[in-house]
Amino acid sequence: MKKIIITYGLIAGLIVGGLMLLTMPLWKSGILNFDNGELVGYTTMVIALSMVFFGIKSFRDNYNKGSVTFWNACKVGILITLIASVMYALAWEVSYANMGDEFMQKMSEHYFDELKTGGASEVELQKAKDDWASFSEMYKNPIIRFGVTLTEIFPVGLIITLLSAGLLRNKKFLPSMESGNQNTITQ
Length: 187
Prior knowledge:
Blueprint: H1 2-29, H2 37-63, H3 70-117, H4 122-139, H5 142-168, H6 177-186
Helix pairs in contact: 1-2, 1-3, 2-3, 2-5, 3-4, 3-5
């Protein structure tokens, strides 16, 4: 079980972390922005965290004789997600070290423009600016920043884990070739 968790967790982490490092220059150049960057970011998370499904399936088929309980599948999926999440947060730390101040400045401008466009009053804007200043100061702490970054990806992995565990607990859902051959022979 450890081998599957580590292998699929590292693959997922390399995909999501690598794609982040590849897309950040696109953001810096203006090709990606806050309107489309979030979509790209969460899409890369879903692609990378598809490894949760494959990890659970590998555990079920190769180590657990073609069956897995919902909770054991969840355990495998959550541990794969944790590895991928840590790698994602580490990749963000590398990106942040290279462009953190610029990113935070552009993010705040975008946020305040959205508020103004939405019709926020001056009082609401001032409150938002005060809140943003407080958050920005707190976000400079790498431990807090790391934790905040984990909260971006972990819920995505948790949803994929629950869906995968629900599907793969059924022995008939994508049975392994070995179990398919065994059924044919015994019938």
